[in-house]
Write a structure and sequence with these properties.
Order of helices and strands: HEHEEH
Oligomer: single chain
Helix content: 25-40%
Structural class: mainly alpha
Radius of gyration: 14 Å
Mean pLDDT: 84
């Protein structure tokens, strides 16, 4: 698993869209998928149908996924105040670009 850690508004979603188009891996989001679709169209990139986390059962039919806005997803899963998250990064982003 690769972790793309950047500030808001610095191009994480655009990077995911580019990788999605290149690798044919859908993007899962805790929001509606309209923004990702519109941004992909703006970038003139063809991507697999994005998946809203609202429809988690849609994830049962795919092998791989990119997740956008994981911090928001965690807040939706855990309604309490998550104080710390520890995770292993694995590969670096450069290995998949």
């Amino acid at each position: 698993m690769v972790i793309l850690n950047q500030e808001r508004g610095t191009g994480k979603t655009c990077t995911l869209i580019t990788l999605s188009a290149r690798n044919n891996i859908p993007i899962a989001t805790p929001f509606d998928t309209l923004y990702i679709k519109a941004k992909a169209k703006e970038l003139n990139l063809q991507i697999p149908e994005p998946i809203s986390i609202k429809n988690l059962e849609d994830l049962n039919t795919i092998d791989k996924v990119y997740i956008d806005d994981m911090d928001i997803l965690i807040k939706k899963i855990f309604p309490c105040d998550v104080q710390l998250i520890a995770m292993s990064a694995g590969e670096k982003i450069e290995t998949i670009l």
